[in-house]
Amino acid sequence: MSTLPPLPPGWSEHTGPDGTPYYFHRVSNTSTYTRPVLPGASSAAPPKPVKDKPKSKRPVPGTEWLRVETVQGNVFWTHTGRKASVWSVPEEIKELVDRLDAEGWEERGEIERVKAEAQELKRKLSEEQEQDEQKHKQNKKARVDDDSDEEKKPLPRPKKLKPEEAAAQALGVDKTTDKVNLSVEEAKALFMTLLQEKQINPLLPWDTSLPQFIHDPRYALLPSQNARKEVFDEYCKEQIRKQKEEKAKNGPAPKLTPEESFTALLERTCTSTRTSYTEWRRTVKKERAFLDFGRSERERENKFRAWLKVLGERKRRDKERAEKDFFDLLRQFDVNGELEWKDAKRTPGLADDPRYDAVGSSSLREELYNTFVKTVQRERAGEDAAPDEETRRKAKQERAERERAAKVRAQQEKVEADLGRARKVVGVEEAEAAFGSLLTDAVRDVTTFDAALPQLQTDPRFAQSAAVLNPHQQKTLFDAHVGRIRERHLKTLHDLFGAHAPRLDDPYPEGRVERSVPVERLRFTPSDVHAEFTRWSRQRLTTARADFETMLRENSFVEFWGRARKLGGEGAVKDKDADEDDVVGEGEEGGGTADLKALARGVGIEEVEKVLKGDKRYIVFDHVPEERERWVREYLERMAAPKLSVHVPEH
């Protein structure tokens, strides 16, 4: 059992009326509840930390912040709306807190608290005085010498010290001024020592690590919060650097192949031959070693079954070795067969041997002991250890029967497993059908799974499907069902948009669709309806533009004359009986030539628009005729020249 270190010179320990120990320094005439230690000394058995609890809460006027003071005198700030707490004064209320401090709101609360404590102390002192008077009347004794009187003189009660004063007393410093006489470097060194003693995690931020060391007196030695954060950052950098050096010194871990990682995962997580693949997969399905191995689930399962065989063989060897060692242990301690196991196991030193604990259970030890007793009795009776021919034949026959029974049992287990998987597939399909019919009957509006769950649980079909489907599968089916309902209501809402805004340039129909049935079923707000109309209009415009391009490709007039405009040279179609020098012009009887490219040039945008103006896909863009004409021109420019056929005359 560890003991506390001795007190520094000038300090003495006393016990208050409530039984709490405190410490008194005669030179400075001060008291404290914190046990002072010698400089450089540390307590071998630090006291267990007392759980701090809120003592008082004071709201900051006009804000959602509360100033909370704990029973140990610590102060922190909490925000009731965001449910967040910080140790330092938040920036958003810092000016307000400073102004309230200047007005004396904290002093008023402190004065009230001190008055309450003074009244309670006065009451306790009056009770103690009455008890002392009664004792004085009952026991009249002679006074002791002056030295004893001085020792029995009541000491001043400890007063609450500031963190700086408590730190000075804990370090054995003579507190004759308001500040601790330490240099900045010494204060930083002490604060660094504090962080090292507390073993602060260097990867955690300042606010998270602060509660671990804020109650230590050494925390208040530095003059400002920024100075403490600088030392904290230096500590974190140094610790991270040491971790990196240690990691580099040990060297990188050898990289394992996916198969080796999978085998290591099996050795770590599968330690029983009774574990099924389904149960094991459920526990390790998110492990990287599980996901990286194998191209299919069957390959992983085969590896798992092979491991079960290896594990079973390993356990069998361990069991045989443990039994053999147990027999050797009994022979070593000369345990005879005349005693029962309950008496034999009390042999001195027997239970302390590791070979005794290697046997798994007490019942197995007793069974092995009985076998050992029979062996000893046979040896004493002079029986031959080697069996005769009949015994060997019977043993061989029994072994063959056991092997045949094991094969039959394995085949039966395989057939039952196949039937179980088939029944499971059929059961899942039936459960999905039952759960789907339940959703069709009970869920007809867009909602969430958690909101609809109480209603679904009242139906017997939910319990029937829950026996096969897990909550994730049920939620997947629910989301698919709600998605179909949402798509149906959105289609109805889009049809309503089309009825109130038939043209592409029609604005949003304000006040016409906000109270419609699909909007109520979809639980849309007016802003949601407006956003959905914007998306629908954008999609409708994209579809109309694609239909316009399709119309141009399908129109034979545009296709023929647009490609004819791309003919190179003189695109003429000549009559073979006409003289090349005789150019009469167009006409069937004239037998002349017709320049197709010249004719195509005569077909302008006006002729094309006259052909297209009756198509709905062309009419929908009447509000942007310039854009529509530009699209037609761009399409004609993109068209290529036609591929002409060459006919060779017959001779």
UniProtKB/TrEMBL annotation:
Residues 122-154 have a biased composition (Basic and acidic residues). The lineage of its organism: Eukaryota, Fungi, Dikarya, Basidiomycota, Agaricomycotina. SUPFAM superfamilies: FF domain (SSF81698), WW domain (SSF51045). The keyword Transcription does not apply. InterPro entries: FF_domain, FF_domain_sf, TCRG1-like, WW_dom, WW_dom_sf. Residues 578-589 have a biased composition (Acidic residues). GO terms for molecular function: RNA polymerase binding; transcription coregulator activity. This is WW domain-containing protein. PROSITE patterns: WW_DOMAIN_1 (PS01159), WW_DOMAIN_2 (PS50020). Residues 5-38 form the WW domain.
